Amino acid sequence: MKVRADIAALIREGHTNASIAHRLHCATETVARARRALRLPPADLLGRLYAEAAPTGRGLKPAGPLPLSPARQAANRAELLAALRGAA
Do 38 and 11 meet the contact criterion of CB atoms below 8 Å apart? Predict the structure, then answer.
């Protein structure tokens, strides 16, 4: 079934159901059914991040600072203590 393979490829690229249906000249329900069969999340949860924002380098900004690894936290703590000792 070539249509389902094409639908799966476009879903993985991040396109919405409506966009895929328009490109492949099929019904949006066909795309939704294929998405459910592949156990992929609904298009409204994915948005267009991967299809539009990622290739241009403009992605969504994280809500806050990214968490640091324990090793980086320890190194930052050591640098801060060394700087405080040097200032005193």
Answer: yes
